[in-house]
Amino acid sequence: MQTKAAPPITHLQGRRTLPLLEAYFELNHLKQLYRQGWLRVGLSREKCESVAEHSFGVALLCLFLADSYFPEADASKVVRIALLHDLGEAYVGDITPHDPVSREEKLQREQQAVERILAKLPRGAEYLALWEEYEHGTSFEARLVRQVDRLEMGLQATVYEHQGAGDLSEFFASVHKALETPELKAVLAELEKLRPGVSPPGA
After folding, report:
1. Which of 67, 133, 174, 203 could disulfide-link 142, Cβ–Cβ 3.0 to 4.6 Å?
2. Angle, nearest 10°, between helix axes 75-84 and 140-162?
């Protein structure tokens, strides 16, 4: 698992502090953790985003999309789920579909990690419930975040293609499989027109 630095929580070994500060040192590793899928296809570490950067992009997209396209959604809940959805990777790392880890094992590892981080916080059980909602897709908001998580990957792939990363079509195939709503499919169709080498209609 490639990272920029060791997990910041290691700096607190043997020291007692506020649960809030401990949780921050744990989640700060998301800033150190590269999105491994980009490295796998040859993107340099200098250009590769961190998991935290991806989560930020997902959260903002969720806010904008919920407000503009999905008035039936609880926008606050959507953003809260988006902010929490990658938290387990602070301990587990960014496991990709190409890693020899089953979906069940990945879920179990991440659940343990999320519980470890959140259990110490006053509203930890509430946050954990939102994370579980995301993983199991048990609400409209959770399923929306799961789709936007993939859509953001397509957006980032387009940026990387413009920066010279080559053809990243394999990532778009994953996005197409994940999107369910007509609104998000329409956004993806517009995004595809922005990819290098794709001419707009009428050009």
Report:
1. 133
2. 60
